[in-house]
Here is the input.
Amino acid sequence: MGGRKQKIREPKSGIYVVGEGITEQYYFSHIKKIFGFHCTIKPRFFGNTSVAEMKKKIEELLRGDIFIICVFDADVAAHNESERKKLEQLQNKFQKNKNLLFCTSLPSIEYWFLLHHEHTNRYFRDAKAAETALKKYISDYEKTVQFLEKEKWVHNLCYENKLKQAIERAKTITDKGESWSNIWKAIEILEENK
Here is the structure.
């Protein structure tokens, strides 16, 4: 008749990183290991998610004693009016929630990676353009599991104080410019909670 009811497990307390794609998932997984950050990163919290799916994940996690770092690219919202409105509604809904940090990059997280190598806020047409600029420094960079699962690319990205330089560069560029990223806020929170 009825089968066993599955008990819904409440998430454990701590910092959770959620995001829209595998690039964000692998980047934060590697950063966590390299720097010894204390946070939870699970594949089910990532993927090609819509704003609606991200809202659902956030609401699920906020039931517990949890701080959420929500990482996503802003380029879709910049070019798609419907997605931009949904994203604004999501951010407005949780605006006053002290347990949630939205970390966005325009056009994409590849722009954040580029800041590890150069100080720029020039215009990038889309994520692909930022990726092309990044390949000047990481020639074999690919948005594939085969590339992203290797820790070496993130290690090289942060090598010789490049992460600190990226943070300093990102802090000087506001979200009103052509390109920007506030992922530095996530790194600082993770650093504080080591």
The mean pLDDT is 88. The CA atoms of residues 38 and 193 lie 7 Å apart. The first strand starts at residue 14 and ends at 19. The longest helix spans residues 22-35.
